[in-house]
Design goal:
Layout: E1 6-9, H1 14-24, E2 30-33, H2 50-65, E3 68-78, H3 99-109, E4 119-129, E5 135-147, E6 163-165, E7 170-171, H4 172-175, H5 177-183, H6 185-202, H7 205-208, E8 215-218
Parallel strand pairs: 1-2, 1-3, 5-8
Antiparallel strand pairs: 3-4, 4-5, 5-6, 6-7
Helix pairs in contact: 1-6, 5-6
Amino acid sequence: MTASRRLVLGTRNRHKVEELRSLLGLLDIELATLDAYPEAVDVVEDGDTFAANATLKATLQARCLKQWVLGEDSGIVVAALDGAPGVYSARYAGPAATDDANNQRLLRELEGLDRQQRAAHYVCHMTLADPEGQVRANCEATCHGQIRRESAGTDGFGYDPLFEVVEYHRTFGELGPLVKRVLSHRSRAARMLAAQIAKLIETGEWERGERPNIMGKSGR
């Protein structure tokens, strides 16, 4: 591994950092977090799409830190709520909302709806920016399921105790981290991004700073 092969995970969410480390750990790069950079900026996530927010996180941090940065934005989309919580998933119950508060609001919003009306899907968008703040790769993935009437399971975070993967008849809170790493929106996006990063390294573009146009999309 060369000294320049460092990727900064552009999030302060402890749960996301843990998942990203497990999903990208086999790459021939060093994974760092924003905790290693006191000068890291506080990015205002005011985009109206997951892609817009991920791009903001990646490009602004990369220009500030002069490092490769992975920006990630994700959330849950509920058809019956016209796409809410969407990009506001982390703060659905307010600016300082806890996971439990967000879950309780979602349950209230869906109260009275039957199983067929509780369809939902997770979305994860990842953007990779080089040390100049140029976008080098994008990928987006989804995972479809439905919202339970009550929480089940203690694993995961966010809406995982409510989000049932229909084929397994279990929530992500019940399925546990190993299964989630295979099925989740974040794992699917990470696999696509890992392939793109491997290509950048293999071709020498990681070191040279060239700008290919790479885009991936996955989901079901």
